[in-house]
Amino acid sequence: MAKLAINLLQPELLPKRQLITLSRVVALWCLLLVLMLLLIVYSQVTVDNLSRDYRQASEKQVEQQQLLDSLQQQVSQNRANPELIERLDTLKVVLANKKALHQQLTDQSQTQAAGYSAAMTELASLHHKHVSLEQVIMNKGQLTFSGLAKRPDAVPQWLAGFESSTFLSGKHFTHFSLSENKQGLTNFVVSSAANNAEKGPN
């Protein structure tokens, strides 16, 4: 078949394609605009979510603070009456005293039966509300008292009452010690000398 047309335009004579054209620049700017819009939308959504979380956290903090204030008010209203506390402490001292006396009555290794009943009867009648006996020892005429006192001056006041006692009157207490424990109570030990000349009843 015979050629009817001859291409005289050689490849090296064809115009080179340009990398930067108006259409490409417009397309690039449109793409950047879309990306910027997406970034703005994402940032706005993130800010809205953070703002909502902050509001919720603030509201929860306010509720917890109100609950704390309410609980503190209830605790302050539930404080015990000082007068009732004083009466309770007195009852504790009395019960401790009776318990100590009962232990001494049932402990035959440290006490003598002769004269013990009379001594315990007089000690019970000379009870001081701020003094709690923990141990009473009678050994060959020597008496030793040890226990707790709510106030240091309560021990001398309690001992002063022995002058009206038949069994305890005239005893000379040669050993007297006071010390404060961790609970703020006073530990005391009082001992009399054996074979003291006893005075008659007052």
UniProtKB/TrEMBL annotation:
<dbReference type="InterPro" id="IPR007813">
    <property type="entry name" value="PilN"/>
</dbReference>
<keyword id="KW-0472">Membrane</keyword>
<feature type="transmembrane region" description="Helical">
    <location>
        <begin position="21"/>
        <end position="42"/>
    </location>
</feature>
<keyword id="KW-1133">Transmembrane helix</keyword>
<dbReference type="Pfam" id="PF05137">
    <property type="entry name" value="PilN"/>
</dbReference>
<keyword id="KW-0812">Transmembrane</keyword>
<protein>
    <submittedName>
        <fullName>Tfp pilus assembly protein PilN</fullName>
    </submittedName>
</protein>
